[in-house]
Amino acid sequence: MTRAAAIWAARTSALQRLATGHTALQHRITTALTAWVRRGRRDDLEGLAAALGCWLRLALLTAAGAGVYLAVRSRPRLMWLLAAVWAIAAWRAAAAPRPAEETAPATPEEPHQPDPRDAVLRLLYEALDDRPAMFLSELLQSLQRRGHLEGVTVAGLRARLEALDIPVEMRLKFGGRGPTRGVVRSQLPPLPPLEGTEASPTPSTAA
After folding, report:
1. Residue 109 DSSP one-character state
2. Residue 133 near residue 169 (C-beta atoms within 8 A)
3. Cβ neighbours of 194 (radius 10 Å)
4. Which helix (H) or strand (E) holds 135?
5. Packing angle between helix 116-128 and helix 136-145, nearest 10 degrees?
6. What is the spatial distance between Cα 169 and Cα 133, in angstroms, rounded to a whole number?
7. Does the structure show a pLDDT above 70 at 148?
8. Quick count: other Cβ atoms within 10 Å of Cβ 157?
9. Given Cys at both, which of 61, 68, 71, 164 links 117, Cβ 3.0 to 4.6 Å?
10. Do residues 121 and 192 touch, judged by C-beta distance below 8 A?
11. How far lies 20's CA from each of 15, 91, 101, 165, 207, in Å?
12. DSSP assignment, residue 187?
């Protein structure tokens, strides 16, 4: 490889790492800000009053963005500083490619650990029993009566379900009550098979 080709390859690799880091950093910030705004909703309230916290946090983010924009408009040199900070953060966010010869040796496989999402799904199906849906407040009470999630609030339960990618219905109406947050049996993933058994060809609805 010629010197010019080596320089071009190094520049291309650096640009690719910056691009990868930019995408990862953008996704990380967007996800964090979205979760922060959503945590502003009050589960003990309903309607517009429950969403006031979300609107307040959106207003704070808008004000912060406007402040940065005005600062850059008044002092354009700040853009260079912001660009440098973002480039450094993007560079660190992207994992540096490792040469094939430096690949770590294979390690023995660890014993299979149960998936926490599967365990939570089983608890949800047990709490639902034969009901098609349940509000989060009722679900939390049912789980706590079984000795689970002691000291956890409704907001904490919702955060745990969302972290495990378990669907939470935002405006559930059931039994003449609502709308408020809850879980719907038909929206839940199928119950995973127990260890040592084969998966059923049809989704199970029994706990």
Report:
1. P
2. yes
3. 8
4. strand 133-135
5. 100
6. 10
7. yes
8. 22
9. 164
10. yes
11. 9, 8, 23, 25, 43
12. G
What average pLDDT is seen over the chain?
A: 80
Hunting for tokens 């608890």 — which residue is that?
A: 123
pLDDT score at 1 = 58
Phi, psi of 182 (to 5 degrees): -170, -175
Cis bond before residue 190 (omega within 30° of 0): no
pLDDT at 200: 45
CB–CB of 139/161 below 8 Å?
no
User: Using only C-alpha atoms, what is the Rg of the chain?
Assistant: 24
Query: Alpha-carbon distance 131 to 148, whole Å?
Result: 20
Q: Which two tokens stand for residue 183?
A: 């879980």
Please report which residue ranges of the chain form alpha helices under DSSP H: 3-38, 48-74, 78-93, 116-128, 136-145, 154-163
pLDDT tens digits for range 84-115: 888 888 888 876 444 444 445 555 565 556 67
Phi, psi of 135 (to 5 degrees): -70, 150
Tokens of 156: 């904490």
Instruction: Considering only residues 9 and 40, tell me which one the structure prediction assigns the higher pLDDT.
Output: 40
Q: Check whether 82 has a pLDDT greater than 80.
A: yes
Residues 82 and 172: their CA atoms lie apart, in Å, by: 43
The mean pLDDT of 109-126, rounded to a whole number, is 77
Per-residue pLDDT tens over the stretch 33-50: 888 888 888 877 777 777
Predicted model pTM: 0.42
